[in-house]
Amino acid sequence: MTQSLDLESLIRIAPKLAELSQEVLFNDIWKRDALSPRDRSLVTLGALTALGRAQQLPWHIDFAQRNGLTQTEITEAFTHLAFYAGWPAAVSALACLDEE
């Protein structure tokens, strides 16, 4: 599996995408009051898992933990997703959690 880009690499490779990610996604969308950062992380982990975006999961697992989700809660979310997103997607997500 190819590693996801860190912010410095993204800035070097695609500066506009890095700028939009920071300004629109993290300084606007993630800071809206209707959902807590913890809830947004749970939704994000679910979407990445369902879409098979395992490359993005390690960073978002760490971010989810910083936003208050425990490893047990993340594991339970991936287990729950097996029945909605598919067994392979959930197992791939759990493999990313093991890397943490």
TrEMBL record:
- Identify the Pfam families for this entry: CMD
What range(s) does the Carboxymuconolactone decarboxylase-like domain occupy? Answer: 15-99
Checking InterPro entries in the record gives: 4CMD/NDH-1_regulator (IPR052512), AhpD-like (IPR029032), CMD-like (IPR003779)
User: What GO terms are given for molecular function?
Assistant: peroxiredoxin activity
Record-given protein name: Carboxymuconolactone decarboxylase family protein
